[in-house]
Amino acid sequence: MPAVIFAVVLGTGLGLALHLGKWINIGAMQMEKPIAKLFKNQKSDLSHEEFLSTLVTIIVLFCASGTGIYGSLTAGMTGDSTILISKSILDFFTAAIFACNLGLVVSFVAVPQFIIFFLLFLGAKFIFPLTTPSMIADFKACGGFLMLATGFRMVRLKEFPIADMIPAMVLVMPFSLLWVHTILPLL
To answer: CB burial class (10 A; 0-12, 13-18, 19+) of residue 29?
Structure first.
């Protein structure tokens, strides 16, 4: 767990320093503009700020989940797509719930999700052989932390900067390797 916590703390700091959340907000606004022009009759009880906050939440929920990333890697390496199929079923119902408040813009989140997961699928033959079981476990745990933060944000319990937390998913595997092979032997 220390590698995961270290990755979440440093990854979030890196995301905040790079203003990753701001860039994702800009992307969400750019994604929403053409859809709003096409479907003008859309009525929503959400303010513009709440709308963007919810849109960013679902972008992170769908595109940066540990399940989706791990499922893409597994499908690319082993050909077993059961994790991605399970995620797609869950995402379908989740998207339907979010579409009640946000409208058709939710369906367009599938575009960046497809790009990210497809690139991971293609890169899996290079990434997966470099991993260990502890790296995979730490990666899943880091994705769990992001999903927990997303849940807190969805129920408006705590506004975590989940978009800024995404770099943690990149940092967790190298930190896990460093922890297991360098720091643990010293303890």
So the answer is: middle
What's the pTM?
Answer: 0.74
User: In this predicted model, which residue has the larger pLDDT, 185 or 150?
Assistant: 185
CA–CA dist 55, 98 (Å, integer): 9
Cα-based distances in Å from 113 to 39, 42, 164, 182, 187: 22, 24, 17, 35, 40
Total Cβ atoms within 10 A of residue 58: 23
d(CA 110, CA 117): 10
Q: Which value, in Å, is the radius of gyration of the alpha carbons in the chain?
A: 17
Phi, psi torsion values for 52, nearest 5 degrees: -65, -40
Of 23, 36, 26, nearest to 108 by C-alpha is 36
The confidence score (pLDDT) of residue 44 equals 65
Q: Which residue has the tokens 């599938």?
A: 110
